[in-house]
Amino acid sequence: QVQLVESGGGLVQPGGSLRLSCAASGRTVSSYAMGWFRQAPGKEREFVVGITRSGSVVNSADSAEGRFTISRDNAKNMVYLQMNRLKPEDTDIYYCAAANLVRASINPAHYDYWGQGTQVTVSS
After folding, report:
1. Is 20 helix (H, G, I), strand (E, B) or coil?
2. What band does 65 get if pLDDT is binned at 50, 70 and 90?
3. What pLDDT does 29 receive?
4. Is residue 58 within 8 Å of 104, Cβ to Cβ?
5. What is the chain's Cα-based Rg?
6. Sign of the four-CA dihedral 37, 56, 27, 111
């Protein structure tokens, strides 16, 4: 099993940047396909970006318009989401998830472990 804890969310102005962190414990992140998801109240959880066990990146259909980047630090057992040029519509709760898969899936139902989420609010 793996336990996931997100951090780094907060309030940021439009056009700003944030880096979300996902700290894993129990097993190494390289043992899983990892994904970042976002969810607004009353909406379904949406895939943002993922990384396969081999380290390849899987982008969503819109790839957050190229503004979001996932990375993984195996030594620290961390996964990151770098978000640039943030927009008010990026306001959501962001979740880190781990799947017992080789390749990251865009389907949240394929993920086995979830963090508690971190709130990102983009507002002036």
Report:
1. strand
2. low
3. 92
4. yes
5. 13
6. positive
21: part of which helix (H) or strand (E)?
Answer: strand 18-25
Q: Which residue in this structure is represented by tokens 């630090």? A: 73
Which residue matches tokens 């940047």?
17
Q: Are 100 and 32 in contact (CB under 8 A)?
A: yes
Distance CA 20, CA 95 (A): 10
> Is the CB of residue 53 less than 8 Å from the CB of residue 102?
yes
Q: What is the pLDDT of residues 39-51, one digit of tens each?
A: 998 999 999 999 9
Burial of 63 (0-12, 13-18, 19+ CB in 10 A): middle
Cα separation of the two ends of the chain? 40
In three-state secondary structure terms, 102 is coil
Task: Report phi then psi at 118, rounded to 5.
Answer: -135, 135
At 58 the pLDDT is: 82
pLDDT score of 71 more than 90: yes
